[in-house]
Specification:
four-stranded mixed β-sheet, globular, Periplasmic dipeptide transport protein, alpha/beta, SBP_5, 7 helices, Dipeptide-binding Protein, domain 3, two-stranded antiparallel sheet, 8 strands, single chain, peptide transmembrane transporter activity
C-alpha cells in the first residue's frame, strides 16, 4: 500500500488521492513488472487495506469485502480529478483571500529492496504521465518507513495478519496512516466496541468500505510468498502462512 506521511496539501485531499489510484495501472505493474507474467494464486490488486485471502472463501480474508471491486486504471478520470482538486483549492483560497497551495513535487519513499524499487519506478512513470513531478527516496537499510519531513508518501509492504488487531495500527491517528478522518475513526471505534465475532467481521467489512471511499491509504496489491522444498523433506504441511511454521515436524525420508 501507499501511505501518505507528510503535510503535502494535495495528498491531504481525498479527491487527489483518488486521482492517484485511478492514475496507477496496478494490474500492469503487478502482473508485468512484479510477477513477470507468471500466474501466482492469491496475487491480486486490492480495493482496501486488508488481505483478500487466496480465494473468495479463504478465512484469512475475513475482513475483505469481495463485493468492492478495485478501481480501474483510468488516466483521463485521474486528470479530471486532479483538475477538480486544484479548482476547489483555488476557490477555497479565494474565499479566505489567501494564496492557493502549490502542487509541489511528491517524494515517494520505498524500502531498499528490489521489488519495492521496481514497483515505485513504475508508479513514478505512470504519475509523471499525469503531469506530476515525482522524486524517489530510497530508505536506509533496515528502515520500512521514512522519518518525518523526508518523504510525502511511502510504499509499505504491510503484513496485516489479524485485521481486528491491526486495523488501528494501520489506519488510526497514531498508526502508519496517521488518519484523522472522522469516518475512519468512527469505523475503528465501532470495531473495537464489537461484542462478538459476527459484529467484528461486519464492522471490518464496513471499515473496508470506508477505507475504499476515504483512502487514508492507497491500496495496491496482495503478494503471496511461495516456497520450494525437496520431496525428501516430510512434515512441511499444506497451506502454511510462514516458511518455518511446521519446522518442529520436519524430517527426512529414509
Amino acid at each position: 500500500m501507499l501511505v501518505p506521511c507528510s503535510d503535502h496539501e494535495y495528498l491531504a485531499d481525498k479527491t487527489f488521492r483518488r486521482a492517484l489510484v485511478y492514475g496507477t495501472n496496478r494490474e500492469d505493474i503487478l502482473n508485468g513488472e512484479l510477477l513477470e507474467s507468471l500466474e501466482v494464486p492469491g496475487c491480486r490488486v486490492l480495493s482496501g487495506p486488508f488481505p483478500a485471502g487466496l480465494e473468495d472463501n479463504d478465512p484469512l480474508g475475513y475482513a475483505y469485502d469481495q463485493s468492492i471491486a478495485p478501481r480501474n486504471y483510468e488516466p483521463r478520470l485521474a486528470k479530471l480529478l486532479m483538475t477538480m482538486t486544484a479548482k476547489q483549492m483555488e476557490s477555497e483560497a479565494s474565499r479566505k483571500k489567501e494564496k492557493p497551495p502549490e502542487l509541489k513535487p511528491i517524494r515517494l519513499a520505498f524500502p531498499p529492496e528490489n521489488l519495492s524499487r521496481i514497483a515505485c519506478e513504475a508508479i513514478r512513470s505512470q504519475w509523471q504521465l499525469l503531469g506530476l513531478e515525482i522524486e524517489l527516496v530510497e530508505l536506509p537499510v533496515g528502515r520500512a518507513f521514512p522519518d518525518p519531513g523526508t518523504a510525502d508518501i511511502a510504499y509499505v509492504s504491510a503484513a496485516v495478519w489479524e485485521p481486528i488487531i491491526d486495523a488501528r495500527r494501520v489506519l488510526g491517528p497514531e498508526g502508519m496512516a496517521g488518519s484523522t478522518d472522522q469516518l475512519v475513526g468512527l469505523g475503528l471505534r465501532r470495531l473495537e466496541e464489537s461484542k462478538n465475532w459476527r459484529d467484528a467481521r461486519d464492522r471490518l467489512l464496513d471499515l473496508h468500505a470506508i477505507a475504499h471511499h476515504e483512502l487514508p491509504v492507497l491500496p495496491l496489491w496482495q503478494l503471496v510468498d511461495s516456497y520450494a522444498y525437496s520431496r525428501d523433506l516430510l512434515g512441511v504441511g499444506s497451506d502454511i502462512v510462514s516458511l518455518y511454521q511446521n519446522a518442529e515436524k520436519w524430517r527426512l525420508s529414509q
